[in-house]
Amino acid sequence: MAERKPGEKVAPEPSAEVKMERDSFVHTFFKKGAEFTDELLRENDRLRKRLFDLESENAALRTHLASDEAIRELLRKIEYLEREKEQLLSHVREAERNSSHLFTRYSEVEEELSNLAHLYVASYQLHSTLHLREVLRHLKELLTQLVGSRAHAFYMKGSNELVPIASDGIELPELPRLAIHAGSRKEEDRGSHDRTGELIERVFMTGVAHIEEGDLSVVPRDQPAACVPMRIDDAVVGVIVIYSVLDQKEQFLPVDYALFKMLGAHAATALMGALLFADSKGKFPGLDTIAAITWHAARAGGDLK
User: Fold this and answer.
1) Which site among 8, 20, 94, 133 is 20 to 30 Å from 80 CA-CA?
2) 0.70 surpassed by pTM
3) Contact predicate 250/215, CB 8 Å
4) What is the enclosing helix (H) or strand (E) of 282?
5) Among candidate residues 174, 172, 130, the one with its CA nearest the CA of residue 154
6) Could you count the other beta carbons within 10 Å of the beta carbon of residue 168?
7) Which residues form the GAF domain (predicted)?
8) How far apart, in whole angstroms, are the C-alpha atoms of residue 72 and residue 155?
9) How many other CB atoms are there within 10 angstroms of residue 236's CB atom?
10) Is the CB of residue 146 less than 8 Å from the CB of residue 118?
11) Which among 131, 182, 133 has a CA at the least distance from the CA of 160?
12) Other residues' Cβ atoms within 10 Å of the Cβ of residue 156
């Protein structure tokens, strides 16, 4: 115990009651502190657990958001691929149309080449003979195989009339002779519903072909499908008359018009040559005849070109 200094006042000792109150207060204070500390620790644990749960939920949300973004990206990719697919299909359809057009054009060109080959062969055969029977046979083959003629006839110019000299698909005696100068046609022809004579006369007088356009199945039976003038230089010497065509011939095509033009020139020279050869009883001109023709041509200031 510390030694007291002189004059130092000494505090009176608390009473037992006060000590008991003080001890009770201290005990209560520390007990409350311990309870408060336990409560703080429990709250801290609860908050830690809540923080862990929130972090887990946040991670899950991040994962879900990333998954949604991936799905949206896939949808955008699918939409892009769909557009690209439509474009490719459009290109394929256009390519198919172009291919079909080219195939059609190729078929047309191939058919035209085939027809031109037939024309070359036919014209070569047409001028390969001077015998009327052979010339008519070649003409018949041309009209039947290339034009599709069912019935036709050849009219040649006589003195004052057109004379049918050959026919196929129609009897020759049934074909009338036709006057060729204006106003000389028979009155029964003028009043007839059959326009054949009128058309043949008009084609011969004008030199302009009459060719039906469009559907040939609707052509009236009282008029031919085509009348083509036969020319030698600028002179019309006859008419090819096509009375009817085969059933499979629906209409005249551009190649038919070219064929008619070729026939108008080549058939005339072939027929006229064959008729002259037949008139000469099959005799070829001799050297004297050739020399005389050459001499007269030289005197006229011309040549035989």
Assistant:
1) 94
2) no
3) yes
4) none
5) 172
6) 18
7) 127-281
8) 85
9) 19
10) yes
11) 182
12) 17
Name the residue type at position 143.
L
Count of alpha carbons within 13 Å of 138, Cβ hemisphere only? 23
CB 201 within 8 A of CB 185: yes
What is the spatial distance between Cα 172 and Cα 188, in angstroms, rounded to a whole number?
A: 20
| Sequential pLDDT tens for the chain (305 residues) | 456 566 666 666 778 888 888 888 888 888 888 898 999 999 999 999 999 999 999 898 888 888 888 888 889 999 999 999 999 999 999 999 999 999 998 988 888 788 778 778 777 888 888 888 888 888 888 888 888 899 999 999 888 889 999 999 989 998 988 887 655 555 445 555 567 888 898 899 899 999 998 888 888 777 899 999 999 988 999 999 999 999 888 888 887 888 888 888 888 899 888 888 888 877 777 777 777 777 777 776 655 44
Residues in the chain: 305
Side-chain half-sphere exposure of 153, counting CA atoms within 13 A: 21
Location of structure tokens 């060729």: 180
Residue with tokens 């043949």: 200
Environment class of 271 (CB within 10 Å of its CB; exposed 0-12, middle 13-18, buried 19+): buried
Distance CA 31, CA 133 (A): 147
Tokens linked to 30: 């520390």
